[in-house]
Amino acid sequence: MFAFAKKFGFYDQFVQGMKMGVKEGKVVPVKNDFKWPDDAVNEIARTIKTIGLSGWTAERLRKHQENWHMFDPITLAGKGEMKGQYYALPWPCWDEKHPGSPILFDVNTPVNEGGMGFRNRFGAEHNGVSQIASKTVTVKGSKVEGGYPEITKANIEQILGITLTEEEKAKMGANWKVDFSGIIQAKCREAGVCVYGNARARTIVWEFPDPIPLHREPIHSPRWDLVQKYPTYDDQVNNFRVETKYKSEQQKENWFENFPTMMVSMRVVNLSGAGMLERTSKYLSAITPEMFCNIHPDLALSKGIRDGEMMWLHSPHGTKIKVKAHHNESVTPDRVCMPYNFAGMFQGADLSANYPEGTKPYAIGESSCTIVNYGFDVITQIPEFNAGLCRVEKA
Description:
This protein has helices spanning 2-7, 11-16, 38-47, 58-66, 156-160, 166-171, 183-191, 224-229, 247-250, 282-287, 297-302; strands spanning 20-23, 26-29, 125-126, 129-130, 236-239, 242-244, 261-266, 292-295, 310-314, 320-327, 335-339, 344-346, 349-350, 365-366, 387-394. It is α+β, with helices and mostly antiparallel strands. The strands form 5 sheets. The protein has a 6-stranded mixed beta barrel with strand order 7-11-8-10-9-15. The protein has a 3-stranded mixed β-sheet with strand order 13-12-14, with no helix packed on it. β1 and β2 form a beta hairpin. The radius of gyration is 27 Å and the shape is globular.
């Protein structure tokens, strides 16, 4: 990345953040050069302050790596020099004095030891109903009894019962997420209060398209009757700046008529993700040397495909992949199953010549993602399934 930034003329901007630091409550340049990777890690810690991870500094993480033997493998609690911290500083880890949070929403543990209530991120009340925890849910050791909203510059004095100096007010950010002075965090620590509040859990999420969870059929569903009963989302005109089809694609036709086989993807134990690292190991590649697809013998033989022969899987998108058939009765005759850990082939074409010299993996193959559904949840942006419909043909 350094070489890339230099080549394309933005190296100074690329490394600028690693020369920054916090001074008098503001992020400003503090050095002329940077130490790699420490200053990159510290830059990350500053930027993920907004989700409660500014305690993940390079110094602390390195000490945890060097002293992993001082942590209990079950509870993560530290011993000896590491006492009072939890291994890897589990989220949230508010600042450099926080031990990390081994168990979320644990009100029986003081905040300064990793305890907390539910995060108040959806207002103090909704439709006249308080969203703040009742007095029966008081975090152990907290100066504030019961629930309270997210701590901000505007409410900290009232909630904690303190008086800030004018100097503190001048340095303090609007809320804990942007308060680089650390004053909000320090005041909350003194009071045993968690900066993100102590709220009720909620089962009705009024901001979501489905405030109460509702089943929606996948875009390419094998059940046309359920598509009519449980349609997917309306098309999104601006889904993170991208126009995305949902309902119009789902109801364009009964996809199952031309693509009558369900496909799902799976993990294999010796590969991870796209397998880009593992497939460069001759030993791991020897375990799974080629892309394959598990197919029930009844389905395979109905298409004239013998065990070990190549077959095409066609998708509703118009894409296809060429994979080796593995007869396997662990899958039912109405579906196929394959790993998603391969690359280097695309719709039957060998693209391995495009790898830079000396970097071609020991094993290449088609990517199952070439034919899976593109649909994804509009809230989490997570794919609806790494699955879809396909049509099986003998290659």
